Structure formats: structure tokens, C-alpha cells
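anyone seen this seq b4? input:
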Amino acid sequence: MSEIQDHIRNLDYLTLSLTEEKNNLLMWSHYAKSHKGFVIGFESENIFFSEKTLSGISPIFNVRYSAERPDYSLTEGSDYHNMYENILLTKSPHWSYEKELRMFARSHIGKNIGKDENDFDVYVFNFSPECLKEIIFGYRMSTDSKQKIVNLVENRYPNLKIFEAHLSETHFDLDINPYKKP
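predicted toks r here
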């Protein structure tokens, strides 16, 4: 198993993790700086997410949740592609609340823009503006940060819809409403 794990760690691929739910409280808490960040909504029907290309970017895959670990062995008649797909797309059911989707890309296609707060490399990739659907501000995001993003969006992506999250007054949920400038 360790030989395969080492090989996967050394692959020159990056992972884009997405979710199907834009109002999941845990996802906002874990991945959007405790509601101080924002969410980018993509148009999942766009060809960018579905077409397998030679560009080094995979189509989008659903993550599978299983109580059993994937098989790390390569049996006769199987291939590395299926084995890696099982390993990279299988998670414990404890994570099923994420409703995760994943894409993979070769790192040389992206632009390394530095490190994040955990000292991981951060890459950005080019994709058509038609892939973008919406931006949702976290309910704890500062007015100044919202305004900076609004200025960028209005200039570069005039058709992008802008929303903001609010804590529901009646449920343990987020209400997503159109953004109103102050």
C-alpha cells in the first residue's frame, strides 16, 4: 500500500474540491473562514466541467462515500487508472455531508500564486467566464471585502449574480439572498 500512496503523492496533479450545496453550514464553517469568506458558484453544465480534454484537466467526478477503504492492490486485468480513481474518489461516510465533487489538473497548467495560511501552494487556472454563475458572501464577511469583490465582478463579469448569506431565523440553515449594496 505505501508504494502506491507514495506514487499518488508524487503525481503532478492538483485537486479542485467542490460541493453541491451552497448553504451547508459546516462547509461554510470549515472552508470559508467561518463565514467570513465567499463561495463561487459555477455553472456545472458548462463544457469545462464535463468534457475530458487533452488539456490536463479532468471532467468533474462525484466522490463516493464508503465505510470500506478502496483496494490498493493492482490485480490482473485491472489498470492503474481505475485503481487511482477508486483511491482518489473514495472517502469515509463521515464526510458525506460535504456532497463533494472533484476535478484534477496538472500543476503546470495553473499559475502558482504563493502559499496559503497552512503553507500549501495555491494555484489558479484559466477558464471561460461562462463557467461562473454566482458569488455568495459569507454572513460574517466585512463590508470592505464585499465591496472590493463587487468592484472586480462588475468590471470583469457583469452578468455574474451576487448574493449574500444570512443565518436563518427559523432553521439551522443559511438563507441566500441577492446582495444589496450599503
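Helices lie at 2-10, 25-31, 47-50, 80-88, 143-156. The radius of gyration is 19 Å. kinda curious what u guys think
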